[in-house]
């Protein structure tokens, strides 16, 4: 049976959930999610001819390209490695031709686009090993490009290949608005998922928490592998909230997170020798609140997937970003987005604009933070929203760290960004603070 | 179909508009009680508040906000109609500038400009009795109070705790209270002054402490004014508690940091 811990937020048990966050909208309530799952058992395959490796998904990556524009790549071929950790590789999920490699500021990767993609030549089978060790598993994950599926706390980056984490969190929960229960993704891959969890336990000496919604236990428990239920409202389904509840990261410690589909991919890779790059994502229309599940690849062209040229978001309507490509860690594609963050209308219209110096109002300064009740319970338990927001907005990195910034990543700030009167983007403020802190460390 | 809440966001402007709307019934009740002189007070307060906002907007090259309206409405409701208008103008100017604008505007400081202005009024001109209420004024406060508490623009924790601690202080001292004056002063003062989100504590635990402080101080200040809790006592209590609110938040943060440090680094299941 899944282990249900006491409600740490209030010191008492709260039904079957760890703690309750915000009721976001109709779509985010667990009972509605249940309904969505019933309707969405059918998963349609969507192939694309264009996809991209998006730099925004790999924080801290210093790209060393292994291919050039115009090269033909096969599935599973290494496209990029990291300069700091050359063993960390990003591989092509499908064969195709490199159309462009664009860089952002400070030689970060913007996007590596591949077109003419075909899945005809499947990735070569990996040598199947009967007995995996920590070292051999690491080597396989690094070589097969599955290593960047892991993300660390603090900092939310792919881990150092030589590091041993204190705990690993497998995320099989999703509390974003209109998100389907990830059990729907795992329905056909339970065997691979269980194998993946058992393999991940090799990477750490500490616990492996399988965070899931209420229901049948996803894996068999061992002393180190635990089923835990997080069934509250957003942000209860986010990995940071789960870490903060179960294993808050201490000084010099590190925990890793991995999504349930990547876990299944790990299991399948080692069990069968084949790496399956496919991901199941929900295509959600923000207007009609309808969703359908599709199977595609990370980085897929959103326009091709949705068959339209409208603006779309990779990710949920809350935490997603306007993008052309499906993000590596996103499980939703949101269509029918009017304007997710109407920052333009949030600005007060200047009354005496004639007296202002030209350019004076275009500075787009953030508004005041008015601590309305909407800001409560927007962050994981034990993290105080308003003091953290104030610290982040004035760039006080040290205070932000004391208040728990190291336990958070961008996705955790989305709810706060959507609720705060200031109109500031706390995700990017947090990333600046984390960059500073990592530079000091 | 209800649109998802993710698309709605409070902005400083619509916070001010909502607070203003919540006060309109009270203004009408005060008008009915004291006659059109209230409008003169309101006019002077609006002009003074907006003029200073305009001056600071020009100096800082930032857009003007209309929050001065909300401040002016508080003054019009609370200040006695018999007061000379120049006194209103001076008090509003001092309140808006020193309570709000020198910090960078509403939400960047730690005081409600209305509270600051009312405190200046009472300090500078002896004998000013704020909010001479009747039953209708008290009744007209209720809808706005319910609105602000319901939408979360007035935190409910300090409101509830303040009422409980006033009651506790009054019970301990064994005094009776007259309900109409007390009701209007307490309800209006707590919801629109004490529970203004920019003037109080911003953490949950801080809000409990802040509410207890407001309530305790009201009980203390009202001890020698007879059976009614006057609005003057409420204004001074809120002013003092607002000054201490950042300290309360600071203490809450320190405790939180310590607790987080103690929890960190080990499994909790």
Structural notes for this entry:
The complex is a heterodimer of chains A (441) and B (269). Chain A contains twelve helices and 18 strands. By secondary structure, chain A is an alpha/beta fold. The longest helix of chain A is centred in the last third of the chain and has 15 residues, at 426-440. In chain A, 52% of the residues are buried. Chain B has 269 residues and is an all-alpha fold. Helices cover 70% and strands 0% of the residues of chain B. Chain B is built from ten helices and no strands. Chain B has helices at 12-34, 37-60, 67-78, 85-99, 113-124, 135-151, 156-173, 179-194, 204-221, 231-263. The longest helix of chain B has 33 residues, at 231-263. Chain B is globular, with a radius of gyration of 19 Å. The chains are: A alpha/beta (441), B mainly alpha (269). Chains A and B meet through loops of A and helix 1, helix 2 and helix 10 of B.
